[in-house]
Amino acid sequence: MCGIFGILSQTNLSDEDVKRVSDIGKILNHRGPDGQGFWHKNNIALGHRRLSILDLSNAGTQPMHYKNNRYVIVYNGELYNFIELRRELQKVGYSFKSNTDTEVIVAAFDFWGKDCLKKFNGMWAFSLWDSDKKTLFLSRDRYGVKPLYYINTSNNFVFSSEVKGI
After folding, report:
1. In angstroms, rounded to a whole number, what is the distance separating the alpha carbons of residues 83 and 9?
2. 78-110 confidence digits (pLDDT tens)
3. Has 2 been annotated as catalytic?
4. Separation of alpha carbons 147 and 107, rounded Å
5. What are 55-58's contacts with CB under 8 Å, separation 24+?
6. What is the C-alpha separation between 133 and 71, in angstroms, rounded?
7. Of 12, 122, 144, 159, which has the maximum CB count within 10 A?
8. Which pLDDT tens digit goes with each residue over 45-58?
9. pLDDT tens digits for 65-86?
């Protein structure tokens, strides 16, 4: 199990806001003892606690950047059919730098948009930032096996894989 968290704000994040969000990683330490990552830019911050399962290399580090940093993803879960989806995406020209299901999710989103969810078989919660469109896309599996909690205030949208994270 991994831990994911983040914030999307109506305004640029202050240094204090960034520190507060990055500190959520300490709260979620038990969800990912194998590593942690944090990324922020202007009004968005994403964090991840890693439990390495599929690709134990640094290529699976998150937040993961994809397609010249257009996309940034934090992900918790397992996509059971990622090998088949990877092959399908390779046939239409996608290449991969890791052996992770995380990278397959981002490529699938790039190719199919939100319809990629119809192709996923597994348990997941993820947040994907599109820096070109300035949009944040969140998803969890159909049965809610992987939790995803959020709160939307007048200024901020905050999410986490645990309630105590938000």
Report:
1. 35
2. 999 999 999 999 999 999 999 899 999 999 999
3. yes
4. 23
5. 55/98, 55/99, 55/100, 57/98, 57/99
6. 10
7. 159
8. 999 886 555 555 56
9. 999 999 999 999 999 999 999 9
Task: Report DSSP letters for 128-146, one per residue.
Answer: EEETTTTEEEEEE-TT-SS
Distance CA 24, CA 101 (A): 24
With 0-12 / 13-18 / 19 or more C-beta atoms within 10 angstroms meaning exposed / middle / buried, residue 17 is middle
What single-letter DSSP state applies at residue 33? Answer: B
Catalytic residue among 1, 2, 51, 71: 2
CA distance 165 to 57: 27
| Interacting residues of 147 by C-beta distance below 8 A, sequence separation 6+ | 125, 140, 161, 162
Alpha-carbon distance values, 4 to 55, 138, 154 (Å): 18, 11, 22
Chain position carrying tokens 């830019």:
41
Tokens of 37: 């990552």
* Angle of CA points 146, 39, 67, to nearest 5°: 85
Residue 35, pLDDT above cutoff 80: no
CA angle 138, 1, 56 (to 5 degrees): 100
